[in-house]
Amino acid sequence: MIADIQEILVDEKALEKRVAELGEKITADYRGKYPILIGILKGSSVFMADLIRKIPIPLEIDFLKASSYGAEARSSGVVQLEADLSMDVKGRSILLIEDIVDTGNTLKYLLNRFESLGAADVKVCSLLDKPERREQRVIADYIGFEIPNEFVVGYGLDYAQKYRNLPFIGILKREVYE
Ligand code: 5GP
Ligand code: MG
Ligand code: MG
């Protein structure tokens, strides 16, 4: 598995440090707001699990599943909702937890959706940001790391459902998906 990685972009230590920093900032911003943190499955699962333990205030969590990728290493641009929320978000403070914002198509779709569901306030925390490939004018409110235009895996991010369990963010060798 590790033989398929070309380069480690963000190692375990750097992830731990940055997640703690994001947690501290979110804690300060959301004190007294009783937010719902919504993980976008499956990519944000590892990040979400670490992040919520760095936010020691009352909060709730929920998940939804959106996909735009299929088994390709390239976005199709069409976002599909594969599993919906279990909670009512009307009037609530929502913090969406994403693994990566790439074209921005997923985020744009989700922001529209939460607006129409009547959420009081919707913000986004994304572990990674790949600004070079943006097709929509969206930006996350909290960003872990800005990364170059490379296909990355690990710490929740997959290629064809593999590599999510790598403890770091690494660039996948091109020969694996080309
Ligand atoms: P977007 O809609 O912003 O193009 O991207 C949405 C989703 O595409 C992300 O949440 C993520 O699941 C996937 N994605 C985008 N870039 C990468 C990448 O470099 N690696 C992996 N594993 N997934 C990515
Ligand atoms: Mg995602
Ligand atoms: Mg994926």
From TrEMBL:
<dbReference type="InterPro" id="IPR000836">
    <property type="entry name" value="PRTase_dom"/>
</dbReference>
<dbReference type="GO" id="GO:0016757">
    <property type="term" value="F:glycosyltransferase activity"/>
</dbReference>
<comment type="similarity">
    <text>Belongs to the purine/pyrimidine phosphoribosyltransferase family.</text>
</comment>
<keyword id="KW-0660">Purine salvage</keyword>
<comment type="function">
    <text>Purine salvage pathway enzyme that catalyzes the transfer of the ribosyl-5-phosphate group from 5-phospho-alpha-D-ribose 1-diphosphate (PRPP) to the N9 position of the 6-oxopurines hypoxanthine and guanine to form the corresponding ribonucleotides IMP (inosine 5'-monophosphate) and GMP (guanosine 5'-monophosphate), with the release of PPi.</text>
</comment>
<dbReference type="InterPro" id="IPR050408">
    <property type="entry name" value="HGPRT"/>
</dbReference>
<keyword id="KW-0479">Metal-binding</keyword>
<keyword id="KW-0963">Cytoplasm</keyword>
<comment type="pathway">
    <text>Purine metabolism; GMP biosynthesis via salvage pathway; GMP from guanine: step 1/1.</text>
</comment>
<dbReference type="InterPro" id="IPR005904">
    <property type="entry name" value="Hxn_phspho_trans"/>
</dbReference>
<comment type="pathway">
    <text>Purine metabolism; IMP biosynthesis via salvage pathway; IMP from hypoxanthine: step 1/1.</text>
</comment>
<keyword id="KW-0808">Transferase</keyword>
<keyword id="KW-0547">Nucleotide-binding</keyword>
<keyword id="KW-0328">Glycosyltransferase</keyword>
<keyword id="KW-0460">Magnesium</keyword>
<dbReference type="InterPro" id="IPR029057">
    <property type="entry name" value="PRTase-like"/>
</dbReference>
<feature type="domain" description="Phosphoribosyltransferase">
    <location>
        <begin position="8"/>
        <end position="159"/>
    </location>
</feature>
<protein>
    <recommendedName>
        <fullName>Hypoxanthine phosphoribosyltransferase</fullName>
        <ecNumber>2.4.2.8</ecNumber>
    </recommendedName>
</protein>
<dbReference type="Pfam" id="PF00156">
    <property type="entry name" value="Pribosyltran"/>
</dbReference>
